[in-house]
Specification:
It is built from 20 helices and 15 strands. By secondary structure, it is of the alpha/beta class. The relative contact order is 0.12. Bound molecules: pyridoxal-5'-phosphate.
Length: 466
Amino acid sequence: MLNPAAAARRALPSLDRLLSSAAVTALIAEYGRSRVTEILRHALDAERERLALPDTAWDEPQFLHSCTTSLKQGSEPSLKPVFNLTGTVLHTNLGRAVMPKKAAEAVMAAMTRPVNLEFELSTGGRGERDSHVERWLKQLTGGEKAVAVNNNAAAVYLALNTLALKREVLVSRGELIEIGGAFRIPDIMARAGVKLVEVGTTNRTHLKDFAEAITPRTAAIMKVHTSNYVVQGFTATVLEPDLAKLAHEHKLPFIVDLGSGTLIDLEQYGLPHEPTPRETLAHGADVVTFSGDKLLGGPQAGLLVGRRDLMVRIAKNPMKRALRLDKLTLTALDAVLRLYLHPERLHEELPALQLLTRKAEDIAAQAKRVLPQVAAALGDTWRVEITACKSQIGSGALPVDVMPSSGLAMTPAAKKKTDVGLLATAFRALPVPVIGHIKDGAFVLDLRCLDHEDEFISQLPQLRLK
Ligand SMILES: *Cc1c(COP(=O)(O)O)cnc(C)c1O
């Protein structure tokens, strides 16, 4: 007589037998033979070990069910849509700006059909890929020439590497910034082959500090928009027109890294003022760099605009080839920039602007609408209340300005021992993960960016609360 474990192992079918079964044939059709074979082989090995333990039995339907789950999970994307209810509109970790439908449609066409990326339709000759966005950028900023690269970090790198290689660039000590994701001005300068010369002190920098730092080795003066912090109190910075004048007196280019760089005056929408490339060029900057996916509301890109002779050199830098944009990004950028040609309609068309200017009453009404559904899904373990929120623009833009918003705050109901961290985890485990934040012991969802409300509500019953 076999012992029970050996008997159980004997019941285990062979891999070949399983592969020819009807159920597995269907799995092969869906996931491919090699992946199904690999999953089954691993699962059979694990099963053989499990059956060596007492009180175990071979259960084929259960076995196939778990293999199907592994195959399904193993083929799902890890990069996917989420609900950004963090209260930060341009959230770098959540992909920054949400783009307009028009851009998505244009990208769809560019993905599935050939495009005249570097092909001049009028002559049939070779074209220039940046030309498709350059004409709009010139028009929208007043720059004489424009170049587009992978992101603003690349734009800064390219400008410095082109205009100051093996020479010195003067920057105010108060502007030696670090932006999340390891963008540090001093590090970028070092990698661009440029020697950084720090000028002034952290809180105060004067024009004479710059003037005294200029030597024959100086290649440029640079100003960096202090995107993600403010220096308050006893402070002094040198105004752009003064820095530009000083640079030009010494025949040096004046480079300004604007960071966010909106193309329009945001004050007309009740938002705080953020410098535009047009203004900065008018102040005498020779090259201005800014991001495509911050306040501009487009795809990830770094944009350079400015004086023709300098921009021509930047475009010719061999590194431009390594940092250039692909056809999809250029198509999306073109679509977004064209929306700016009609500023009166911009806030209807550009999601980033729509979200930033969303009316507080509108968000409050939405909070009232979704509260009962969230409360029902959470049951009596949790108290759900409407709470006042302060949304942020994000991506380093206008760091101290906040926009009034409404959200839902979830706290454990009296005497119930639960952890808000587990609630945050459960929301993140939904099919379309919901990302909020924890504040003062509550899990908070700021509803400013809640689009697709029906989808948000319909997946709530799937919350797994323990
Ligand atoms: C955001 C930012 C950058 C980096 O831009 P990316 O597009 O994220 O590469 C550089 N400089 C400033 C001032 C910024 O705000």
